[in-house]
Amino acid sequence: MGLFDFFKKKEAPLAQEEKESLDKGLEKTKEGFFSKLSRVVVGKSKVDEDVLDELEEILISSDVGVETTIKIIRRIEDRVAKDKFLTTNELDGILREEIAELLAENKSSDVENAFIKSDKKPFVLMVVGVNGVGKTTTIGKLASQFHQAGNKVVLGAGDTFRAAAVDQLKLWGQRVGIPVIDHGMNTDPASVAYDAVKQAVEQDADIVIIDTAGRLHTKVNLMNELSKIKRVMQKVIPDAPHEVLLVLDGSTGQNAFIQAQEFTKVTEVTALAITKLDGTAKGGVVIGISDQFKIPVKYIGVGEKIEDLQVFNKKEFVDSLFKRK
């Protein structure tokens, strides 16, 4: 199965096991959201200004973000004005419809835009993000999924400022049976990227994934470093990288927004992966980030297993988010 076929397969509805993982991964977000929502509507029969004010607070506290929350509230206000009367019993359904429509309008988050250009071989994926967001683990899981689908993968251990990052990537490579190009710690990350891309070409690989330093040091340094990595890769493949994937930790809520802002200022981020949604009540961050940055959310992490790094399917996400026990 080639990379293009791999993603076409992922466009299909989630398999039962994947859907169960998604439901489980969003449990804490649902519990927090619906428990608050239940308190708002108790004893009330209609959606009035007080209900909307409290709903606004709930959405913001669920890390949907202020701008996206305001959009959602305005949409509901328009429906209240149009229909003259909406009951609190209808609120779940209305919210679900408006959030689904908001995500649908953001075509950049469509799963069919997943980062495969079938004419690019090897496909060069550069991964960025701060330390602790699950960047190296995301690379390992991605590499494993591509490998399992029959693709030839090469990894470049370009986060040379942390020995743990290099060692972790090498462990993933050993576990999956994928070559990892590394020069050890405190070496030039651009040199690692160059060698990884060169080896991927020589080995006729389908995809090469390049890790980068997980530091938000000064913007100038970060920009220079990422620009240098791009330049040296382009000596081998002129249009590399074909994708720049920013990994964000969903459990940090608003910090994820800030990191997205910082990285999009210094490099052209073309895709997002939002990790660690299991174990947090901040799953609303996926809605806000998708809406505000207009950059495809292509992966979400909903558990520890390799397959728990899922291609983001907004329909399935909304279904799980509003699925009551």
Automatic annotation (TrEMBL):
Annotated catalysed reactions: GTP + H2O = GDP + phosphate + H(+)
Family matches, as Pfam families:
SRP54, SRP54_N
Q: Its Enzyme Commission number? A: 3.6.5.4
Q: Name one GO cellular component term.
A: plasma membrane
Record flagged with keyword Transcription: no
Please tell me where GTP binds in this chain.
129-136, 211-215, 275-278
Xref: SMART domains:
AAA, SRP54, SRP54_N
Task: State its location(s).
Answer: Cell membrane; Cytoplasm
What InterPro entries does this protein map onto? Answer: AAA+_ATPase, P-loop_NTPase, Signal_recog_particl_SRP54_hlx, SR_rcpt_FtsY, SRP/SRP_N, SRP54_GTPase_dom, SRP54_N_sf
Q: Which residues form the SRP54-type proteins GTP-binding domain?
A: 296-309
What are the entry keywords?
Cell membrane, Cytoplasm, GTP-binding, Hydrolase, Membrane, Nucleotide-binding, Receptor
Which membrane topology describes this protein?
Answer: Peripheral membrane protein
GO MF term list:
GTP binding; GTPase activity; signal recognition particle binding
PROSITE patterns referenced in this protein's UniProt entry, alphabetically: SRP54 (PS00300)
User: What biological-process terms (Gene Ontology) are attached?
Assistant: SRP-dependent cotranslational protein targeting to membrane
Q: What is the stated purpose of this protein?
A: Involved in targeting and insertion of nascent membrane proteins into the cytoplasmic membrane. Acts as a receptor for the complex formed by the signal recognition particle (SRP) and the ribosome-nascent chain (RNC).
Q: Which family does it belong to?
A: Belongs to the GTP-binding SRP family. FtsY subfamily.
Q: How does it assemble?
A: Part of the signal recognition particle protein translocation system, which is composed of SRP and FtsY.
| PANTHER family on file | SIGNAL RECOGNITION PARTICLE RECEPTOR SUBUNIT ALPHA
This protein is called Signal recognition particle receptor FtsY
The protein's organism comes out as Pseudarcicella hirudinis
- Whichever gene encodes this chain, its name is ftsY
